[in-house]
Amino acid sequence: MANSIKPISLTPNFIVPEDKRPQLAHISPLASIPIIDLNDHVTSSLLQKISQACEEYGFFQVINHGVPEELCEKVMTAVTQFFELPPEERAEFFTEDLTKQVKLFNYYLKSEGQEKVTMWSELFSHPWHPFDDFTHLLPQNPPLYREAFAEYAKEIGGLMNRLLSLISQGLGLDKGCLRKRIGDNPRLRAQANFYPSCPDPELTLGLAVHTDLNALTVLQQSAGVTGLQVIKDGKWVAVDPIPNAFVINLGDQIQVLSNGRFKSVHHRAVTDKTHPRVSLAMFYGPNTEDVIGPVEDLIDGEHPPVYRSYRYAEFLEKFYSQEGTRRMVKELFELPK
Ligand code: OGA
Ligand code: NI
Fold first, then answer.
1. N or C, where is the chain less crowded by C-beta within 10 Å?
2. Domain Fe2OG dioxygenase: where (predicted)?
3. DSSP string spanning 239-270?
């Protein structure tokens, strides 16, 4: 079992079919996603930048976000040390049951008529709030892990609220609107992604193309290694790590709440030949009982509802019933045109 969580050699089960390979030579070299300075006052110019980024990219990086640098480093150290433990020391977390609260797992790419392909990564996922409810389930080793997460979760909670307020205002809504619509009891999960260095990055994927199913993601990536790529105008654009920045992306639920105006964009992670890479995604989404649908204030004669309303549990059920990583879920909730 331990072997299945740590890819060591490039065996055939990791090799992506030819038409799905990353074609790294074709990445737009100059393109990048917008960078937004959160130190700026909330002015119409800041809101304009946010709404433009959300409409055109679904992704942006934030700088001067107020989360202390030492804390960001501490949590990345904790996560990295966890992945560096000998496989048998973290095997207790390994599971193929993706509905588990705390889980270490691999993703697969499954295309019709083809064998499952294992992604060149190991993912560790658990809730980040309410912290006291699950802290006893988190790793005791490295000793730093629980403490670093408790502190980080608090800071990220504050940042999520600020971002949701800015994104709401960017839609022309009340600043509390999205937060209220996602619900008082959001589903908050963390996912640490570990991408070992890979002998041939052209043959593998770290994470296959997907959109995030939640509402909002705050991602920290380790310095110096690029791996995340997003689709812009049909081309892949690399998201280079910049110091002390977070990558922010919208998930499917904000696309639905905004009635399709703000985008949950396809992205993927590729591997690197020489450097392992670690990233830490903090997800903010509705709870299973919450009902999600386009915000009424965004609907008028010119903008009929694109999606029907649903309980989030229904969305999750559709998500888990689709195999592989490239899940197409929000499309199932579109209304006929
Ligand atoms: C994710 C994700 C990208 C990365 O966790 O959903 O897209 O850079 N991660 O690890
Ligand atoms: Ni993602």
1. C
2. 186-286
3. ----TT-EEEEE-HHHHHHTTTSS----EEE-
